[in-house]
Amino acid sequence: MPAEGSLPQRVTIREVGPRDGLQSERPLSLGDRARLIGALSRAGIPKIEAVSFVSPRAVPAMANAAQVWAAAERAPGVLYSALVPNRRGAEAAVEAGGFHSLQGFLAASDGYNTKNVGKTVQESVADVADVVRVARGAGITAECSISGAFGDPYGGDVAPERVADVASTVAAAGVDGVSVGDTTGMATPSRVWRVVELLRGRVPHLRLNLHFHDTRGTAMANVLAAMQAGVTEFDASIGGLGGSPFAPGTNGNLCTEDLVHMLVDMGIETGIDFDALMEAARVAEEVVGHPLAGQVAKAGPRWDVVGRNG
Ligand code: MG
Question: Full-prediction pTM beyond 0.70?
């Protein structure tokens, strides 16, 4: 068993519910989308991916990003990012103003990337490079999500070496950090260890964020494995928003409040106000209008059952 001392004292959560979570829901009103960002901002989550500037034809739920962003209550000290597919999206985000980071994206494999954006990975690298240039011009950070990094249902398995190759390529394009995503919910702890080890060797200067999905029930185990390997930043989605729109209540993105609940009990700092986070989970369920997958929202935090010092 690893010593407790090998775990980080502090972990940074990047909330992706308003973007990754809502994109698979029916389109919500601008007011409801802004309200969710506000509720998350009040919880003191250090990073929030608020909107995406993608084609409204491709992702109707993400339309009108600038209006949502303008209407959202923001909190000082929170670092907000926008997901952008290319130069046009990046320029629209910069014009909207107020973002601390632009998040480009591509997949680890050609199969998944082609399914997602109709391009090869190499073609998408040019878009990521454009996003970096626009971010640099605006004096803000550029990061890149690498999705489907633990398995591609369209093109087959994804070797850890392939993930390191893609990370290395986007690092050469100038990104400050990568978010490596288990979009398809196929990661397990030993796979996480291997990918993290390779990334540490190949791109040691890149900020590393991991993005897990609980599709097969492994998300929390993967976080623990990643923390044991020294990773200190994770994406999570309020209520587990981002499950299939056709199967409400199923597991999609790792649930923010479930993750924070575990970290609080482990004595790992997140800086998040847990009660305000539970309120944000309630708002999330209200705006989407159906039950979400979060477990702690149903069972209650353990300290409500046994007392804060129990
Ligand atoms: Mg996701």
Answer: yes
